[in-house]
Amino acid sequence: MKYQVASSLRHKGKTIEMDSAREIVTLLGINGEAMGNLSWDFVIDQILAYRKPPATRESRTEPRVTLSFRVKYRTPEGQYYESRAGGIGGGGLFIESSAPLPVGTKLAMEFSLPEKPNEWLPAKGLVAWVCPRADQYTFSPGMGIRFTEIATDIRTRVLDLVKAIQHVGQPAA
Question: Is the pTM of this model over 0.70?
Fold first, then answer.
């Protein structure tokens, strides 16, 4: 099926072609030339990534703080990344990334906390949500990682750090 682009000022005259057999969307130029295509999976993932979560729903049960530190992570397929984390709590952390991984991606990771930047702490996690661009909640794009495996002593260190930072931010009694 082909659909003419009529109301978009930037793309008026182009055509969107949907191939249901191959599950591909193709953009055709004004003269009918193929300008590019995307799989339906990609289009669906993009729609879901830009969807705003309900404002009243807070799924976190652990305290968290905004904090910048280093993180290394690897997918089950062996893709390796190094980045900066922008926050942490007892339940997980936020990894800054201009190309966040899909929700549900499992990660093996190591992170270093500011008090000992050369000590790498291991954990495993799952991409719980993505923020494809900076918004009012995050200052940079990235992904929220929910810890699925973290040693008790490491989790305790994270919680102690969170409590210490939260305590510093409170007014004196």
Answer: no
